[in-house]
Structures are given as structure tokens and as C-alpha cells.
Give the backbone structure.
Amino acid sequence: MSKEFETKILCIGAGYVGGPTMAVIAEKCPNIRVCVVDINKTRIDAWNSDNLPIYEPGLDEVVKIARGRNLFFSTEIDKEITVADIIFVSVNTPTKEYGIGAGKASDLQYWEKTARAIAAASNANKIIVEKSTLPVRTAEAMERVLNSNEKGLHFEVLSNPEFLAEGTAIDDLHNPDRVLIGSMETESGIAARDKLVGVYANWVKREKIITSNVWSAELSKLVANAFLAQRISSINAVSQLCEKTFADVQEISKAIGADTRIGAKFLNSSVGFGGSCFKKDVLNLVYIAESNGLSEVAEYWEWVVKMNEHQQNRFVKNIIRALFNTIAGKKIAMFGFAFKKDTGDTRETPALHVAQQLAQEQAKITISDPKAIDNAKIDLAGINGISYEIDPYKAAQDAHAIAILTEWDLYKTLDYAKIYKSMVKPAMIFDGRNILDHQKLYKIGFNVYRIGKTPLLHSETALI
Ligand code: NAD
Ligand code: UGA
């Protein structure tokens, strides 16, 4: 292994966070050797190929700059642990599905396995960085597991949660609103923190690097996701009121978002939030509150998730009602399956819940998505009545309805007059993202159902 690198960073976990985050560190810090390891060989092979395992705008370019120079992907976990100075842990921390806390608590088995692997393979002191999202006070457990080694080694644990969003990950990493680094308030904790500050300072302005105690850093990550998810559930709750009162949810978002105290972001009413983290992290916060005897706090946050589920169910019920209360045998085209645009990720996507519920009603569903069809096939394996078609025009042919589930830009510019002609009449559109020109669609002949707005219906053909 080359000796010219001033620091050697290892990241355990080559997923949506570990891969892009380390690629950007390597791009911005040519003097640091960065290696990303994973137990999943297929994933590592893909990181070493021209066909990266995740789709993320700008990622290919960053990987091309650094891979082979100071960025490496490997399955040799123990060997890489031995040589690393700083080890990021970016393994998955899903919701626990068994035993105590099932359905809410964080499943820490992958995280603990890495802590034990680090302790076993190390023969020098190291800095360990929690990059995964973890329950508050995990660093304490991590330190105990690591420092119970019998080699006299000292491991300093930092919390450096990641705030990137998928689809904009590279931009978020290049220009973060902030980088948060939590440490123990001891001499060695502060020295470790300063070393990590030095890494980010290669491209992030010092005033954007926030330092805190380790517990605040851990909890800030869960709270940030809870606040973001809460805004979406709040505006979605308002969308339901709008549909009953002729108010328009987008006009309300604009009006309230202009207040700088509220701010304009994360006020897009939708079919509901998806993604691997919002639900998991809010429920984890709920569990932590419950574990601390704070039932009112737990209940408060739990409603963020309940409102999201309600919004998804409501979307399906509206489709069934509008299609004359039966969808058995009717073709419905789903435009979009990813949980948001510009990603192929389908974890917790609202589209999955919608597809499952429509399939239960025996609809014939055709799913179209520019990047997520492979994942959709895995998610929906074994469910009858589902087909896949990348071309949205073909997907909509002979359909009774189109449901927009992902806000891909391409859906805004389709020739809907052509699509309308190919569909069964009365043709319906359910815009679960409020991205289309609804008046134009109505004029073409569609019955248009929107989120948080009165539907546009040709009354002779519609059920409200
Ligand atoms: P992911 O599932 O895409 O990747 C995790 C990787 O860790 C997998 O490739 C898995 O094989 C690997 N892994 C698991 N156990 C391992 C072990 N013992 N040794 C080596 N590798 C192991 O997950 P992700 O989306 O990258 O999320 C990782 C963490 O980051 C989670 O805690 C998540 O909450 C958090 N996070 C995710 C995002 C996001 O946008 N996806 C954003 C911020 C934070
Ligand atoms: C989210 C956070 O934004 C990141 O800061 C965080 O790091 C990450 O979770 C994580 O911890 O995993 P992400 O889930 O990738 O990022 O994407 P978001 O842009 O937050 O969107 C989440 C969901 O909310 C999507 O389904 C999106 O369509 C939906 N959404 C978002 C709305 O319905 N309305 C909005 O106004 C914004």
C-alpha cells in the first residue's frame, strides 16, 4: 500500500451514503487515501465498473476523477481496517422487525458487527466516525464494544451524521448547508474532532462546520429528519382540508412559505413522503421518547407517520371512487415508481403502497419509470396483474387512468393529447405530485384529480 498519503480513511458500507460521500471526500482531498468496503461483493464490483450500483446525478463524474487515484472499493474488510486511521461506519440501520421495539426501534445488528470487526482487526488507535443514522447514545455502546479490546488500543468515537438527499447527493456534498461533528468533550475527543474538521475544511467553509457534543450530533440527525417529514405531513393534512373547501394547497404553500420564519422548502403536498429514512427515523425518535417514558412526545411524532399513511391510502381510495367504485380488470398506468425524481431508489416509495392496494382490487397495473423499473420488479415480485413499460406512451395505451407517483421532469413534457386519444374514456389523471398543467389536461378531455385542489371534472363523466 502506498505511503505517500497523509491520512487513510476507510468507510464500511458502500451504499447510497458511503459511496457518494467517500467519492466526494476523495475528489476534494487528493492527499487522503479513501477506501470503501462492503460485505456485498456484487455492490463492490459495480462500484469498480462503469455501471455504478446507484443512480445519482453527477456521481459518475466524481468517481471517474478519483477512482484508482485515491479512491478504492474493496471487499477486504479486515485488511483495510488494519491500515486505516479514520473509519467511517455507514452500514444500514433499518427499523427492527423482531423482538423488543419491533416496528420502531433501530436494528443495530449491522452496526455492532462492524464495531466488533474493527476491534478484532485493529492493531493501532483509530478514530471511528458514526456516519449511519443512529439512536442517541449509540456512541456510548460503540465505545464500550471497541474499547473492551484486550490489546490496549483506544478508539475515539465521533458522530458525523449525513444530511444529503438522494437525487441531489453530489450537490449536497459539494455545498452542504452544514457539516455536523459531535465528539466527547475530552482532550482526545476534541483532537479527533479537529482532525475530522480538517478533512471537511478542504472544501467546506469553516463556519459551516458545526461542532457539538456527541449526543447532540446523534439526536440532531433524527430531529432534522423528523422536522422535514413533519412539514410534509402538515401540508398534506392541509391538502385534505383544501379539497373540502375549494382552497388550493399550492397557493397556501406559496403564501405561508413567503414568511421567512416558515420558509418555502418542503411544503409540496404530495401522495406522501417515501424514502428509506423519514419513516424509520421518525419511528426511531418515537421509540426513544417512549423508552424515556415520554408518551406525549412519542405520540406527537408518531402522527407524522400516521398522517403520511393516511395520505397514501386516501390517494388509492380516490382512484377507486373516481373509477366508479370498481377497478377490477381496468388498466391503470403508474407514471413513476421511485420515491422521488432523479433516483432509482424505491425504498418506502408511496408508489409501492399504491401499487399493492390497486393490485388487491384486481386492477391491471402498468408501471413506467426511467430509472426504477428494476427495483420495482424486485419490490412487486409475486404480485399478479403488474406489467412494466419504460415508454410512458405505451404504458398509458388502453388505460382507464394515469397516476403520477414520481415528479420526474419528463412527465411534464409528454404529449397528453396523444396519450388521451389512446386511452379508454372517460380518461382520468391522478396527479399525486401536482406537477402537470391541470387546466391543459382538462381541456384535452381528461378528468383531473389533484392533491389539495378541487378536481377538474367533465361532470357528465365523473364521480367526485
Ligand atoms: P444502504 O443499505 O444503501 O448501504 C449500507 C451498506 O452497508 C450495504 O451495502 C451493506 O451491504 C453494507 N453492510 C452492512 N453490514 C455490513 C458489514 N458488517 N460490513 C460491511 N458492510 C456492511 O444504506 P444507506 O442508504 O447508504 O444508509 C446508510 C446509513 O446512512 C443509514 O443509517 C441511513 O439511515 C443513513 N442515511 C441515509 C441517507 C440516504 O439518503 N440513503 C441519507 C442520510 C443518512
Ligand atoms: C431526506 C432528507 O431530506 C435528507 O436531509 C436526509 O439526509 C435523508 O432523508 C436521510 O436521512 O436519508 P431523501 O429521503 O433522500 O432525504 O429525499 P427528500 O428530498 O427529503 O424527500 C423525501 C420524500 O419526501 C420524497 O418522497 C419526496 O418526494 C417527499 N417530499 C419532499 C414531499 O412529498 N414534499 C416535499 O415538499 C418534499
Observations:
- DSSP finds 17 helices and 14 strands in the chain.
